[in-house]
Design a protein that fits this description.
By secondary structure, the protein is an alpha/beta fold. It folds into three domains: 61 residues, Nucleic acid-binding proteins (OB fold (Dihydrolipoamide Acetyltransferase, E2P), Beta Barrel); 185 residues, Rossmann fold; 140 residues, Beta Barrel (OB fold (Dihydrolipoamide Acetyltransferase, E2P)). The protein is built from nine helices and 22 strands. The chain is globular, with a radius of gyration of 24 Å. Bound molecules: S-adenosyl-L-homocysteine (SAH). The site of S-adenosyl-L-homocysteine (SAH) has 19 residues, from helix 5, strand 17 and helix 7.
């Protein structure tokens, strides 16, 4: 019987988007945290929902043969790297299979999937981290929360961010010790320092963002001095004031303390100015591969009018604009659209137009307005494209659609709708944007099936 409290021994057959193990318990699919695909585990059912159950791991009886070990404590990387104990090749393999299976299961499509593009060195790739500060046995510690808790696992080396980040955090810890500064405590809601935000560009220059509960913190002067003298490479320092409990890491108010106001970074040869609160893709080197592939698929030329739907800060639009007649970007977040306009300006790109609106409203309007859009880029959030966007595409039938997706399930669903409406899939390219996470990114080239169109 599958009921709360019953125990099972099963092999983990799949992983969820959060990196939890997927097992079967009788007829029920159960998600269990803390195990990897291929592990044989004992677990107990703790919750039963409509379509699935939640299990608690009791023990790993036979670890997967694909497990690897490292010289550092992988648990200290917290929830951001749930697959880290799995051999990187096995991670890539699982991601590739996920794309293949979702197309088969959801869309009934047996497609040729290109080999996934992984990283040569899948570590120290994150250009932005936000690390909580806390206390452990009387010592100031920095590290991530143990999954589902408020407990910080002390971390001295973060193998997901550049080494400069480790040095910055070490300076912050010793400064807090010297100054007897209390980290913020989520239980008692006391203490002054909450998080350290670190953004590092490809030149190994860092912006440090110290998130504090209070506005006035005179001790920050000595931290600025210490960071400048002890960690070459720190080019910008901000204080962020976040008196709120929970919610977002960064509060609304920033105070510039030292150096450059913006960090400069490049994707391909496009220049970006990054403010402490800017959105910027986390894995800079993989994102250029992603966009290069998108552009190869799109083949933008001087006669093309392109619409980049879900355009964010305009990165793909700007990539394409250099080859195209005109590129429209549609994005619902106004601040991102302002960023996109500024990014066009600093790169001297004049043939883009960014629209701040919901794609399901703005895209049909744009088509009705009559500028003949013949190529489209789709890069929606996890829930995929709004049906109205797909309907507009099927009515208007642009020749080429390049679909960039972070969720193979909704990608398969939307692709099926396009195929039923007279399109063909020409290529599917997965790219690993987040090694050690269960995220799967994929680009699909979809073309109008000429034979079915007059
Ligand atoms: N193409 C961008 C960002 C893609 S992320 C890049 O490569 O960086 C998806 C984007 O879709 C986010 O910026 C999000 O704000 C935006 N978005 C979400 N729902 C939307 C909607 N209904 N209409 C337009 N944009 C939307």
């Amino acid at each position: 019987m599958t009921e709360i409290g019953s125990k099972f021994i099963e092999e983990v057959i799949d992983l969820t988007h959060d990196g939890d193990g997927v097992v079967r318990a009788g007829d029920l699919t159960v998600f269990v945290a803390g195990c990897l695909i291929g592990d044989k585990i004992e677990f107990e059912i703790v919750e039963i929902k409509k379509n699935y159950g939640i299990g608690r791991l009791l023990s790993i009886l036979e670890p997967s043969s694909k497990r690897v070990s490292y010289a550092f404590d992988t648990k200290s990387l917290g929830g951001g790297a749930p697959l880290i104990d799995l051999d990187y090749k096995a991670q890539l393999n699982w991601k590739w299979e996920k794309v293949k299976k979702d197309f088969e299961r959801i869309a009934g499509l047996k497609l040729e999937i290109r080999p996934i593009i992984g990283m040569g060195y899948p570590f120290r790739y994150r250009n932005h981290t936000q690390v909580p500060v806390g206390i452990n046995n009387g010592e100031v510690v920095t590290g991530y929360y143990k999954k589902g808790t408020n407990i910080i696992v002390p971390m001295t080396e973060d193998y997901l961010q550049p080494e400069l980040g480790d040095r910055i955090l070490s300076v912050v810890r010793s400064w807090m010790g010297d100054q007897s500064l209390e980290p913020y405590d989520r239980f008692s809601k006391t203490g002054k320092i909450k998080h350290i935000g670190i953004r590092i560009n490809q030149n190994n220059e860092a912006m440090v963002i110290i998130v504090t509960t209070f506005d006035k913190l005179p001790e920050l002067h000595s931290l600025v001095h210490k960071l400048i003298t002890e960690t070459p490479g720190v080019v910008s320092i901000y204080q962020n004031i976040n008196p709120d409990d929970g919610g977002t890491t960064y509060g609304r108010q920033y105070r510039h303390l030292f150096g450059q106001e913006k960090l400069i970074d490049y994707i391909g040869d496009l220049r970006f100015e990054i403010s402490p609160n800017s959105f910027f893709q986390v894995n800079t080197s993989q994102v250029s591969i992603l966009y290069d592939t998108a552009i190869k698929f799109l083949e933008p030329g001087s006669l093309d009018t392109i619409c980049d739907i879900y355009s964010g800060i305009g990165t793909i639009s700007l990539y394409a604009a250099r080859f195209a007649r005109k590129v429209y970007g549609i994005e619902s977040i106004r601040a991102a659209v302002e960023n996109a306009k500024n990014n066009a300006k600093i790169n001297g790109i004049q043939n883009t137009e960014f629209i701040a609106d919901r794609a399901e409203l703005a895209f049909p309007d744009l088509l009705r307005a009559g500028d003949a859009i013949n190529k489209v880029i789709l890069d929606p959030p996890r829930k995929g494209c709004d049906k109205k966007v797909i309907d507009a595409l099927l009515l208007h039938k642009p020749e080429t659609i390049v679909y960039v997706s972070c969720n193979p399930s909704t990608l398969a669903r939307d692709t099926k709708l396009l195929i039923d409406g007279g399109y063909e899939v020409k290529a599917v390219q997965p790219v690993d944007m987040f090694p050690h996470s269960a995220h799967v990114e994929c680009i699909v080239l979809i073309k109008r099936a000429e034979s079915r169109v007059k």
